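Tutorial handout. Part one gives the primary structure; part two gives the three-dimensional structure as tokens.
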Amino acid sequence: MSARRPPIVGRYTAEELALAARNRGMPLEALRYDVTPPGLHYLLVHFDIPAEGPDWQLKVGGLVSEPFSMGVEQLKALPARTLRVTMECAGNGRGQLSPRYPSVPWLEEGVSTAEWTGVPLRALLERARLRDEARDVVFRGADRGFERGIEHEFARSLAPGEAMRDDILVAYAMNGASLPPQHGAPLRLVVPRWYGMASVKWLHAIEAIGQPFDGLQQASSYHFRQAPGQKGEPCTLMRVNSLMVPPGIPDFYSRKRIVVAGTVAIGGRAWSGAAPIVRVEFGAGGAWRDAVVEPLHAPYAWQRWSVSWDASPGEHELSCRATDAAGNRQPLEPPWDLSGFGNNGVQRIAVTVTA
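Part two.
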């Protein structure tokens, strides 16, 4: 197995740019939507998008008393739920760190919200009857490739107690339509509140095992680390975060915003995997004041916030900062992480206000 890629300083590499062209973020103006249209939803595909065939089977086995397989149409015949879920890539914000870990160079657009329809995972596990000796439940995707010299399919796991939550779905629809190929068709896992790596796409197998899963994407990748060689802590719940819709109109190349002086309506979204959002502060010129935060309408989705800004001519920097009900508050600067995971430092937008 080759060594982990070391952090780098300087220009983005050709490999990073190729990944950025293949994987896309949500345009920040799409924060205006309660539910992100599928074509604007952020996208991360580790390997290739697998081909979807009419004979796709989901196999549930391992340490279960009643293993079974079923086709997509059989799954759709089972009682279903629809949940509105905000999903964020664990590497969102990586490109803002220095030195940065060479991977998809997310800035802050790796987050979106969709309505997912599917069968509760718990119903499938109850049908299979997990055995007492099961210690992990593994979810295997059909996308396959190499990373750090290891050939593998993208696979993640949850402990049985976590897997039996009522809100985890084996989803077959997104925003009322069949899953698009890039979002996991025909089946994917959706794990609310966790970073997106847990929501395995192109799901074809669920396997209960008697020991902690040691697959690359579970045991080695997606861990918070401060320095090389550390085992670190696994990425799980999304950290408290917020974004604003960039005001005014942009310069094409720099994306710097131009706003006409006067009262400007500012708005955005805030979310946390740990607890509902209770406060969003809006910053302009170093001064902070409270925005209006809408109540939590869907328990797993972001919350809208808004504020009015009296924009005077000149150069300004705008920011937003969220706090959740558990007391977690966004830091003013990006928190350091060796792989660039979990960056929830406050968003900063440069704005020129014209008379």
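Part three, for discussion. Helices lie at 14-22, 72-76, 121-128, 160-163, 216-220. The CA atoms of residues 321 and 330 lie 6 Å apart.
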